[in-house]
Every structure is written in C-alpha cells, then in structure tokens.
Amino acid sequence: MTSLQNKNILITGASSGIGKETAIELAKMGANVILAGRSSAKHESVISELQVIAPQGKFKYIPLELEDLNSVRECARQFLDLNLPLHILINNAGVYGQKGATKQGFEVHFGVNHLGHFLLTLLLLDSLKASASASTPSRILNLASGAHRYATKWDWKALQKPTKTMTTMIEYGISKLSNILFTLELAEQLKNTHVLCFAIHPGIVKTDIWRHLPGAVQSFMNITPILSPYEGARTTLYCATDCPASEHGQFLTNCKRETPTALGQDHKLAKELWQRSLEWTGLNTTSA
Ligand SMILES: NC(=O)c1ccc[n+]([C@@H]2O[C@H](COP(=O)([O-])OP(=O)(O)OC[C@H]3O[C@@H](n4cnc5c(N)ncnc54)[C@H](OP(=O)(O)O)[C@@H]3O)[C@@H](O)[C@H]2O)c1
C-alpha cells in the first residue's frame, strides 16, 4: 500500500458513496484528511469512523455548500487559515437529478459539479503549488463521468438558467463535460509547475447520487452490473497516489486513460469555459 504519511488531502462530499470510501482508504494510507461538505452531522460521523480506522491520523470537517459561491470562498479561507500544506485536492462532491439554480443563478448541476469546484480549486492553487516538488507533485482530482457523453452540444445561455429537462441527463452531462474541460485547461495552466491534475470516471457505482432520479432509472440501476463504493474509489485512489505525470490532464477510468467525446477534447471550448468561469466566480486573474 502506498504511504500517504504526513500528506494533507482535502476532499469534497465525503459524507457518503465514493467520497466516503476514498477518505477511509486515504486514512488507512496515513493521510490527514480534511472533509469539506454541507452536512456537519454526516461528516462528523465519517470522521468518527476514520479516527477508529487510523488513530494517528488528523481529520477535520470544514463546511462547504457548493450551491453558494460565498460558502466556497469561506471554505477555502478556513482551510488557508489552518496554515497547512495541501498535497492533494479531490473535487468529489456531485449532484444528479436535482432541479433548479444555485444561489448565484447557475443551473444547479453546472453550479455544484463544476463552478463551485472551479472556484475552490483556484483559491487553493497557491497552496497546492507551494506544497509540491519535482519528486512529490501535488495532485488535483476532478470526479467527472462517462455521462459527459449525454452532452452532445453546448449552450452557454442554459448554464445561467434553472434546470430545463425532466430527466436532468443533459444538465448532468454538461456538468461532467465541464469537469473534463476544466481538467484539460487546468493541465495547460499548470504546465510549468509540479501540480498534476486528472479527470476521473469512477464507473457506475451504487451510491446515494441516484436518489433524485425517476423510479424507472432506479429500477434500471437495480439490474445493471454496478460497482460498490469501495470499487468506485479505485481510480480516485490511483490518481491520488501512483498515476504518473504522463497522464496529466487526462480522463481516466478503471485506472487507465480513456478518450472523452470530441467536445471533451475541445481546447478552444475548454479555454472559453475557463475564462467565463473566472468571470462568473469573480476571479479577475487570467492565469492560475
Ligand atoms: N455513482 C456513480 O455511478 C457515479 C458515476 C460517475 C461519476 N460519479 C461522480 O462521483 C462523485 C461522487 O458521487 P457519489 O456517486 O459518491 O454520490 P453521493 O453518494 O451522492 O455523494 C455525493 C457527495 O456530494 C455531496 N454534495 C452534493 N451536493 C452538494 C453541495 N451542494 N454542496 C456540497 N456537497 C454536496 C453530498 O453531500 P450530501 O450527503 O449532503 O448530499 C455527498 O457527500 C460525483 O461527482 C459524481 O458525479 C458517480
């Protein structure tokens, strides 16, 4: 087992599913884990489990509501106030099947799954850079999805409106495509640093994420071969530890590089999404 002794890792959405299993495995490898998410009760309960599994580890909860960019800023501030190095950031939290808009008016999947994590990442980037070295790069992991394939066209206007479709498949697909495009451009921005980034499809995993979807989809999930959250955490753990620099900026599933759709390889679109995300989050710098 790879050692993550003395490594500080911030993970979003570790109250359940893939995030919780990831946090457990990271703790077993000796990491100190900071859990950022919206339910203090759920995260404190996970922390109690981690303390039993890894009594030497340090674990902390920081509130984070990704539907509100002010909460994202506050989360980053609370982490930076700890004055700890940050070796790995895992942007894991996600929603599927919710409807509506975020506090700042973005479609809820886009706002939570992409924009909130975009802001969090950029606010923590200096810390990730400062904690990295050539022999031990820092790492940024973005949980994307094979469902980015549902996004067959791009509509900028739809990103600033409430969810339009009944199934939310298109909106979820766009948000997961955004995770891949963000990783693509982030890799460019980080070219001359010791920070690596990866986008991940964890497989189809039995978690709470399906709970907002229509009954028919949930029935389909019951007959589809599906991974446990433990199995679903595998590619995340690989990217957090052994995945080499040659995979920087790539989309991985089952611990291997996978080719995303043509939209997911569109560098021009990735750059435009980066620029607009900077404007929408109020970050006025043009490079990381
Ligand atoms: N399960 C799959 O088959 C699958 C496939 C491809 C990709 N993924 C991706 O894997 C990641 C983890 O999903 P999962 O399947 O493990 O789902 P999950 O069990 O539902 O976990 C999602 C986590 O995100 C948190 N979250 C949701 N909305 C949030 C918000 N507004 N602010 C802060 N935290 C929020 C949840 O917190 P609460 O407990 O408060 O809801 C929970 O901790 C997601 O990015 C998902 O898109 C999953």
Question: What key phrases describe this protein's structure?
Answer:
288 residues, alpha/beta, Rossmann fold, 8-stranded mixed β-sheet, 9 helices, 41% helix, globular, binds NADP nicotinamide-adenine-dinucleotide phosphate
Strand content: 5-15%
Query: What is the H-and-E element order?
Result: EHEHEHEHEHEHHHEEH
The number of strands is 8
Helix content: 40-55%
**Bound molecule kinds, no repeats:** NADP nicotinamide-adenine-dinucleotide phosphate
What is the count of helical runs?
A: 9
SS-based structural class?
Answer: alpha/beta
> Alpha-carbon distance between the termini?
33 Å
Shape: globular
How many domains, as an integer? 1
Q: Biggest sheet: strands, sense, closure?
A: 8 strands, mixed
CATH architecture: 3-Layer(aba) Sandwich
- Give the name of the CATH superfamily: NAD(P)-binding Rossmann-like Domain
CA-based gyration radius: 17 Å
Overall average pLDDT: 95
The name CATH uses for the topology is: Rossmann fold
* CATH domain class name: Alpha Beta
- Major sheet: arrangement of strands: 3-2-1-4-5-6-7-8
**Would you identify the regions where 5 or more consecutive residues have pLDDT less than 50?**
none
